[in-house]
Each structure stands twice: as C-alpha cells, then as structure tokens.
Specification:
Length: 135
C-alpha cells in the first residue's frame, strides 16, 4: 500500500486510468473540431461538442514549467519536481519528473520528456515523465 493520494476514477476518467494501467497515455479529441484535450471530460472545452473520441497519445512531451518542492508530501521525499508538461498533441498536464536530479541544472525548460508509468496501487497507475532517451 502507498501513503500517496490515490485518485478515484469516475465514469468520465475511467478510460484514462484503464489506459495508464496498461502503459498507455490516453487523451480525448473532439470529433467536431479536432481539438485534443486534458483533463478527461464528456465534452470539448473548445466548442462544447459531446462527440469526443479517446486515443492513445504518443507519450512525448516537453517541460513547460515546474517547481521543486522541498517540503515532504504523502509518499514523496523532498526534493521532488511538480511539473507542467506539454504533450506533443498539445494538452498540458501536471506530473512529476522522474529519473533525473531534482535541480534547476537538470530540469531545463523545453527539455524533451517521455511518459513512464508508476503503479501506486493494484488498481491505479500514474502517468509520470522522465527525460527522453537520446535527448
């Protein structure tokens, strides 16, 4: 078991959590206007259409912004980065950056990232990000 906060899937987010458990980062795209978005919801935030489709994202991203947290949090030892990553498909999401030093020297804006998955319970796996291989 984990001491971390564990999200509770809802009908609107179930596809996202099921994908993460399978090692897939799932987003939604509006059928009407082609806008890809996050977080999951049953309608397009741009045009309001309820015709949306779920698709597997590439998992490629760049580091848009971050803070380095030096205060402990449930299930996390400081320091750790809390980041906003921009997915290749356009949406931004909040995540942690794993597998690199948690310093300003290592965490450079616009650095290439790739998704990785961290199982925190038997049911919930969190999409996280790490520096892209070969970057």
């Amino acid at each position: 078991m984990t001491k971390r906060f564990v999200p509770t899937p809802s009908p609107e987010t179930r596809h996202y959590w099921e994908g993460a458990k399978l090692g897939e980062l799932r987003l939604q795209r509006c059928v009407a206007c082609d806008h890809a978005y996050f977080p999951p919801r049953p309608f397009c935030p741009d045009c309001g259409s309820r015709e949306v489709a779920v698709f597997a994202a590439s998992g490629k991203a760049t580091l848009h912004s971050y803070i380095i947290n030096h205060i402990g949090a449930p299930g996390r030892e400081p320091p750790f980065a809390v980041a906003i990553v921009e997915l290749a498909e356009g949406p931004r999401l909040m995540s942690n950056i794993l597998e690199c030093d948690q310093t300003p020297e290592a965490l450079t804006l616009d650095m290439p990232l790739e998704v990785t998955f961290e199982a925190i319970t038997d049911e919930i796996t969190l999409p996280q990000f790490k520096p892209a291989k070969g970057a």
